[in-house]
Automatic annotation (TrEMBL):
Residues 5-101 form the YqcC-like domain. This is YqcC-like domain-containing protein. PANTHER family: CYTOPLASMIC PROTEIN (PTHR39586:SF1), CYTOPLASMIC PROTEIN-RELATED (PTHR39586). Pfam families: DUF446.
Amino acid sequence: MKDTQVAQLLNELESALKAAKLWQPQAPSQAALLSSAPFCCDTLSFSQWLQFIFIEKMRLMIAAKVPLPTSMALLPMAEQSWSAQSEDYTVLLAIVAQLDNTICGVIS
């Protein structure tokens, strides 16, 4: 059940990133993807990290039926990353919050 909810939220996140024009048609360089910094913050924007690392990894885990993480806190990074933007990222922030809550087992 949790896998299904997370998969749906990943689809919603992808759609919201596209609607906000944050979805990129080309992947960053392999070197950028291999950063060891949290969220690859030294080589990727948070939106790129979501697209090219987080969403991909979570979808692979669901497909492989590997247990998903039981704890996650992406919302603080999302808020920090998008707070200085002039665009309204309320929908994106809500989806990220739902992902955090679903992974952590918080009923909303």
